[in-house]
Amino acid sequence: MKTNLILFIIIFFQINVFSQNINKDIRKGVKLYEDSSYVEAEEKFRTALQKDQDSFVSSFNLADAIYKQENYEQSESLFEALTEKAETKEEKSMAFHNLGNSLYKQEKIKESIEAYKNALRNNPSDLESKHNLSLAQKLLKEQEENKEEEKKEEKEDEKEEEKEEEKKEEEKEKKEEEKESDDSQENKEPKDQQKPETPQDPNEMTEDEAQQMLDALEQQEKELQQDLQKKKSKAVNLKIEKDW
What we know:
- This protein has helices at about 5-15, 15-20, 25-35, 40-50, 55-70, 70-85, 90-105, 110-120, 125-185, 205-235.
- Helix 5 (about 55-70) runs antiparallel to helix 6 and helix 8 packs antiparallel against helix 9 (about 125-185).
- It is rod-shaped, with a radius of gyration of 59 Å.
- Helices cover about 80% and strands about 0% of the residues.
């Protein structure tokens, strides 16, 4: 993004009174600036400014040398002060133009647009200000579109996260319900399940053993009855001895 230093120097040399009394330090500063030796150029412009603190030329070129060193915050402050210090519309236009450049480099796009507009208000024919204004407006539009797109994507991401959370919550609830169902089923005794048999006392008779014992007793009783019958029968058949 081109600044207005060279243009200003051309104007500067066109004014006879300044071309006759041009300061030696300013000439050296301009030469160093054109050689891209911006630090040395800054020193020369500062020296010139010390000799004439009201010099708009020295102040403007100093700010421009600082801008070229990419110290945009400081150059912004200097160019902003020069917009108030400028006495002619041409000077104001140049100060606003370079102020716009300093703001643009700091990504203060809205502020830079306003600075370029002010440059054009003071010099409507400035093609560089028109060009830079167009660039800044285009960038601002892209930034706003990107922000809208980012907001849209953020909302979509939030919706996806909400869906994922709802899905996790549903799965969690389902697992808890299944667990509760399993626990409840374990605690219930199945209807068709037989109760476990009571362990048998080793001293207790089985049915078969008891029946066998009864049968044995009945047999003994039967045999005993038979013996008794035999005895009775014998007793009847005994001959009673006569008494002589």
